[in-house]
Amino acid sequence: MGIYRSMRAVTAASGDGPVDWEAAGESAKAATDPGALDVSQAEREAYAADVLDARNCVQAETRISFDLPERVQVQSRHHWLDANVATFRRVMEPLEQQAEYVPGLARIVNTGSMAFALSFLSKHVLGQYDPLLLAPDEPHALYFVRPNITRVAERLDVPYPRFRRWIAFHEVTHAAEFGAAPWLSAHLESRMQEAVRNIAAGTLDREALSDLDATMTAIEGYAELVMDRAFDEKYEDLRRKLDRRRQGQGPVERLIRRLLGLSVKRRQYERGESFFSTVVEAKGIETASLVWESPEMLPTDEEFDDPDAWIARVER
Questions:
Q1: CA angle, 68 as apex, 62 and 70 as ends, to 5°?
Q2: Which end of the chain, N or C, is surrounded by fewer C-beta atoms within 10 Å?
């Protein structure tokens, strides 16, 4: 019944743009089990305690002062879909504005592709720090997709409370990055809009895409390094098991991850973490944190492979 409702929502896609976002969201929800969200008051308090402890530990490790997001939510997969359909829609707006005419069949295909991507992601995202790109009046948010966290903890054979706490440390580290770099949201927004506008115009600006990739590599790599250094329990087994999960479970899932760009994201984790580990070993966490002073302090693509060159540049 879910597949039928999902397909019916896609085939009923309408409007003038390349994607019917309401239909995409409806289709993704129909194809996705929301997951149980019977969270007790004690468990909600445990999530809140994890987040507060993570902030204190990350601040002590990085010496970065930052505020936690106003919205910290324990979500089902459907809650995550609602939040991210809105984000995808904002990011893709330049593409829709330049689309003069979209045939109905193309709109159905685009809507179906977006629904599939959203459904797949909603089943795999564990936590998300959301700076709410292109929504300047909205406060930043922190989401925990509880059904995914409980399922992955069971599959990895690790205690749920310990795994949940580790995820909290990762997402709070992202909050530290954006708190240390007030310019970061606007920088990401401009690079993403530029990339989408170029695609809409039928061009591929490799320099803009490289800059966006470098920014995301810095964000993910710094978070990987700091979460491990700040986490107040043993983590080596968690790291090993989660890294194996990121590689995908089988050939079909690996293909889907590649098509959705998740293999690129894994490379950003690994490359960024390697860069910052080298910097910290040579100069300490204070030097690594200089990356958040301004956009000019971000490593270039070449510097990610040559941390010494970045250190020499920023210490002039």
A1: 165
A2: C
Question: Which pTM was predicted?
Answer: 0.85
CB contact burial 49-87 (16+ within 10 A = b; e otherwise): ebbebbbebbbebbebebebbeebbbbbbbbbbebbbbb
Structure tokens at 166: 């580790």
Six-digit token pair at 89?
Answer: 């829609």
Given a contact cutoff of 8 angstroms between Cβ atoms, the answer to whether 73 and 142 are in contact is yes
Provide the β-strand partners of residue 72: 142
Tokens of 98: 């330049």
CB–CB of 155/48 below 8 Å? no
Residue 209 to residue 307: CA distance in whole angstroms: 21
Work out the angle between the directed axes of helices 21-30 and 77-91 (0-180°, nearest 10): 160
Residue-level pLDDT, tens digit, the chain, 316 residues: 355 455 555 555 666 677 888 888 999 999 899 998 889 999 999 999 999 999 999 999 999 989 998 889 999 999 999 989 888 888 777 666 665 555 666 778 778 888 888 998 999 999 999 887 666 677 889 999 999 999 999 988 999 999 999 999 999 999 999 999 999 988 888 888 787 777 667 676 777 778 888 899 999 999 999 998 999 888 888 888 777 766 656 655 555 555 556 566 778 888 999 999 999 999 999 999 999 999 999 999 899 999 999 999 998 7
